[in-house]
Amino acid sequence: MADRDPSEILDRAAQDAVARQDAAPASPTQRQGGRTLAAGVAVLASIIGLLALAWLILFITKGRFLKPTFERIASANTERQVRVGGDFQFYLNPINLKFVAERLTVSNPEWATKPDLFDAERIEMNGATVPFIFGTRRINWLNLANGRVDLEWDKQAKRNTWTFGDPNVPGKPLDLPVIRRAIVTGTEVRYRDPKMLLTADIKVDTIKAADTRFAEDVRFKGGGTLRNRPFTLTGGLLSPNETVTGGRNQIVLHVEGARTVADISGTLPAATQIEGADLKLAVRGFNLANLFDLLGVAIPETRNYRFTSNLTKADGAWRFTRLNGRFGASDLAGAMTITMPNDRLMIDADLKSNSVDIIDVGPFVGYDPERLEAQGAKGTIERVNGTPRLLPDAPLRIEAIRNFDAHVNYAVRDIRAPNLPVSNVVLTLDLDRSLLKLSPLTFDMAGGKLASDIAINARGRPVQTDYDIRLSPTPMGRLLKGWGVEESGTSGTIKARVQMKGEGDTVRESLATSDGRIAVILPAGSFWTRNIQLSELDVGTFITKMWEGKLKKPVEINCGLIAFTVRDGVATADPILIDTDKNVMLGRGVFSFKDESLDLKFRADSKKFSLIAGQSPVGINGYFAAPGFSVISPELLARGGVGVGLGALVSPLAAVLAFVDVGDAKSAACGPVLAGAKASAQRTTKGKPRDDVGTGRPKKG
């Protein structure tokens, strides 16, 4: 020991100390942490191992052993019978889900007309696993062979075949998974909607394209009926090769039927995804109402039309933008959106026209567009029991307007119409659960403005219509220019109001049952002498003024009222009274909205002495569509007979006495006239009730 080096002794001591420290036992905390970590690693390894084992088992077996489990779970969740009659595969390949089923059938609910909603000889799909776990249905590619799909609504349009679960649950819209690419062969799709009277049978096949940049085109063709009118359709999804990596599908669709041709082209985000589509629509046909029948809604009839529009679907709304085209001889542009708030169809539109032909307005109020197309303005007249009829008789499609709501703004810069100077039309249309309002409907006419509010209430039966039409002061010279009245020398104005309420499904019926009042007021102004004297048949004054060269000298109108009280569709003069500086013009009679007949008489009593005056009523008879005028009235013939008798008994000079007008007409108090008061409220300038304006009630018989 004494011979050993001291440094060796120290090194040995240090090594022994380190050894003792290494041999010291671990603390409890250290021992627990170690065990937890080890257990975690073991569990993770076990899970990974099990997943790997499961993946391996599924990959090797292709998941064929899951067939009974799949049928049981699918049948329970859908409350339908789901069966696989042949091979079944369900596994990860290698990451995406792979599904294969042969002779797969999914049954229909008991009320359906076909036993199965879906059956296919073979269906093969590749789906994204991660989106599938989180509830997103995305199919990368689909291979479907000899499939049959039955899509139908029940007769009440409450249930459909593709809404699974409780068969009494209201049907939901068809919601297909996103399919990026598909190969479909020998597959048929059947669609039935009894409420829309729509049936369609479509065959789908994939065509191998030889000379295009597309590898496969999914083509479809078929036909059906819409409201008992047949249609055909052809089209295709032109799937580019890069679709499987997120490319876009080109679509083309051509539809013909119900005298309508429609072409749609553009791109889809995916083969079955409309949301976000970028499409072009071109449609033409005989009547635009036929096209909207596809939606089960009613719009006004039109003449032949042609339109183009951009079309897309965003946030559940179909948007028609940059809409442009023509109907008849008129143009139309704007935008339209179709949505389904609260599962009820809603149409919003903002439209405008630069120029509208008056003939094209006819179908809007119920005239037959085919007759208008063939006959023009004459097409507004038809014969009923041998008499001409002018009022339109097309029924309001009550059931159709119950299916949707609408809000439409429409503006027209100019209306092309002979003898009717109309421009700057502004219309707001609102349809709210069968209550249709045209309010306001305004337009400029001959320097004045016509404003109206019309409400058609189809919530009950019979349909009730309220009319409130107002014409602001309008220059008579400009208004009547088209009928031969020149503006020079005529400074009089005219204003009017119509307030009526009627019942019925057509314009003719609502007017034929209407009650209310029509009043046309003429404030002070001037009118040509010729017009006044001709209405008076004052032959002496007329000839004198003609020889003196004063034919166009104006006669002053103090005030005037042409008013009718309407009872059950029959309008009675109440009153017709025009006071001028030379005479008082009076009218009696009725016209009827029931048969459109006219029976009115006008006469003029002079305020001044006239040697030769007819002073006999001028009759207006016939019908709205064919009015007649009677100048040689029975009263005038009677006075002529008296004149002949006096000439024979006394002297030829005495015959003139029968045509002398002593000029005793009673001037009118203009207050009641300008207020549009009824006949019973009219007074003379001396405040006495007038006894020459009738009672405002038709004579019996």
What share of residues are in beta strands? Answer: 35-45%
How many helix segments? 14
SS-derived structural category = alpha+beta
Please tally the β strands and state the result.
34
Uncertain runs? 241-246, 531-550, 636-660
- Tell me about the largest β-sheet: 32 strands, mixed
Report the principal-axis shape.
Answer: elongated
Classify the helix fraction into a percent range: 10-25%
Mean pLDDT: 79
| N- and C-termini, Cα separation | 160 Å
- The value of Rg in angstroms is 43 Å
Question: Which descriptors apply to this entry?
Answer:
701 residues; two-stranded antiparallel sheet; 44% strand; 32-stranded mixed β-sheet; elongated; single chain; alpha+beta; 14 helices
Model description:
This protein is 19% helix and 44% strand. The chain is elongated and about 125 Å long. The N and C termini lie far apart (160 Å). The protein is built from 14 helices and 34 strands. Strand 10 and strand 11 form a beta hairpin. The model is unreliable at 241-246, 531-550 and 636-660 (pLDDT under 50). It is an alpha+beta fold. The strands form two sheets. It has a 32-stranded mixed sheet that branches. The protein has a two-stranded antiparallel sheet with strand order 19-20. Among the domains are: 49-273, no CATH class; 283-466, no CATH class.
